[in-house]
Amino acid sequence: MKRLTVEEYREAEKLPLIVVLDDVRSMYNVGSVFRTCDAFRVEAVYLCGICQTPPSTEIHKTALGAEESVSWKYFKTALEAVEELEKQGYMVFSVEQVEHSTKLQTFVPQRAQKYAVVLGNEVKGVHQEVVDASDGCLEIPQLGTKHSMNVSVTAGIIIYKFAEDLIL
User: Fold this and answer.
1) How much is the pLDDT for 20?
2) Is 12 in contact with 44 (CB distance < 8 Å)?
3) Nearest to 30 by CA among 9, 47, 13
4) Do strands 90-95 and 136-139 pair parallel, antiparallel, or not at all (unpaired)?
5) Can you give the pLDDT at residue 94?
6) Bridge partners of residue 125, in order along the sequence
7) pLDDT given at position 1
8) Computed over its alpha carbons, how large is the radius of gyration of the chain?
9) How far is C-alpha 138 from the geometric centre of its chain's CA atoms?
């Protein structure tokens, strides 16, 4: 298998997507998101609020080194991250079940646009002020009895959608 070195990864073209984690509590979930972001060459991960940051044994356990290849930045709040992203021309979507959300299967990202997606806390979701500041909300349709999925699973589904439409 031809795998990139960390240096090659840093120089390689990236998927024009930043993943913002809003108060994600579990360091294992954070690590898992890093690993998925590495797999699809996501531009960066923004860690906000109570999210722990690398270096961390717990993050590394699931990231398996992806915290070294994927760029990341810490913000005191996800709202601060969203405000910075919008100033830089990113279209920001919170991943939440809200009225007037866009179902993921109908969303078509545009090649010329840079995107960011905000994923929320394992119990409380994305903060309301972040949802309000977003350009829209994406929703993953669910058919079972539960109304949520693990944040790292959600990240994988969302990131794949962008990768599928923009680079695969």
Assistant:
1) 98
2) no
3) 47
4) parallel
5) 98
6) 121
7) 73
8) 15
9) 12
- DSSP per position, the chain: -----HHHHHHS--EEEEEEEES---HHHHHHHHHHHHHTTEEEEEEETT---SS-HHHHHHHTTHHHHSEEEEESSHHHHHHHHHHTTEEEEEE---TTPEEGGG----TT-EEEEEE-BTTTBS-HHHHHHSSEEEE----SS-S---HHHHHHHHHHHHHHHHT-
Calpha distance 106→161 (Å, rounded): 11
pLDDT of 58-98, one tens digit each? 999 999 999 999 999 999 999 999 999 999 999 999 999 99
- What whole-number distance in Å separates Cα of residue 92 and Cα of residue 94? 7
**pLDDT at residue number 2:** 80
CB 12, CB 4: distance < 8 Å: yes
The angle that helices 27-39 and 151-166 make with each other, rounded to 10 degrees, is: 10
Other beta carbons within 10 angstroms of residue 145's beta carbon come to 5
**β partners of residue 141:** none
Average pLDDT of the chain, as a whole number: 95
